[in-house]
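FAQ: What does a multi-protein file look like?

Like this. Sequence, then tokens, then the next protein.
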Amino acid sequence: MSTYLDWLEDLNNRDSRVRAMLRRSLAFDPGAFPAVYPYVEPFLKDEDSHWRRQVHYLVAALWATHWKAGRTGVPLPMAKAIAQHQLASGSASTERRFITLLDADADELPYRLRQTVALLKDQAIDFDSLLVDLLRWHSPDKRIQNQWARQFYRTLHKDTDLPEESKTEEESA
């Protein structure tokens, strides 16, 4: 577990109201609910980046919403968890939601992730990797979104015999 999630878990072990306050913060923009400042600010210290601050508040709130004592299963990265949900539910709307999540900008992302985490209520999510990925969400080459797409579709089709891609003339030469 990351230092940040260890910090949240330790706070939660000392006072279960921490989770309740962090869950409530989802009704606000990330970092705009003063009641959770005591839980997140000590960890952030002198962080000046607006995006990094928002991501830490958002991940804390999502973690608190999804937290369950004794949850079984290996925590999965977000894209793999979504693919597993689609495989288990057979719902075609899951893929549409996933694509919408990949296309989300900074303003839409908290809402889309809140929906997604609610959808994945029965699955263990790797919040460490979510934090790392969201910190790099705005990379110009959309590296994280491409990584998530690969994880999602490879998980969906891991047991499928797909034909091999044919080589072009340039590759054969």
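And here is the next protein:
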Amino acid sequence: MDQITALLQRTPVSWWDVVDILIVSILIYEGLKLIRGTRAAQMALGSAVVLVLFYASRRFPLETVNWVIRNVFVYAGFAAIVLFQQDIRRALSHLGRARFFRYLAGEKESDETIEEVLTAAGLLAKARTGALIVLEREIGLRNYVESGIPLDAAVSYDLLTTVFQPGAPMHDGAVIIQEDRVAAAACFLPLTISPSFDRELGTRHRAAIGVTEESDAVAVVVSEERGEVSLAVDGRIERGLTPERLRARLQELVLYRRVPVTAGTGGA
């Protein structure tokens, strides 16, 4: 009865309590998204096991286990900073580029990213240099980013055209753009196995279609044989796009994030 009375006499929940809980929930959720699929996830799982052992050692007569864990915890904070300094920087950078802050800043940054991609695609097509540029949307591409060489650089046509120059160390594979940053280059992507794939197209086009089958990403492909620019989305490919058409499609798919409507010509 005393417990029931104490429960009924609890302080009522205010709006500030709700906001407090929401903020903590969002931070935990974003933290889990950041470490998902990385070595930090394994470390977090290991830390959880250590915590379970610590509380078990306090409940049961496990004095040695308790002593070891208590002494290790003294240095755990310093060890975490040293081991995860890159992950911490990436997390803070990711927080600064969160949608809320990008909404406050408007759509200028994404629009500039599209223009840089358009310029790079035009220059590469004119030089008949093959390229594959993937723009992340709602579904994360971290698995593919980690297969390549991390860059975390501002999007510029100079960087994109340099990466895909023949003989350059990173010209093979794809460039992945996340949140208006070049996340990585030389990334490996899944190849489509669709029986309707046009055999005239090469490996880059197969990879572009494959990644858009696995996610909602958008892929810009430059053909070195034909010097044409194509766009892959939703497992389909639109070939021979003019700069104006490519700009309109990227603004529709990336800037405004609408659902793709008609697919162009080509296989898949």
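Q: Is there any per-entry metadata?
A: Some entries carry free-text notes. For the entry above: The chain has two domains: 2-96, 106-255.
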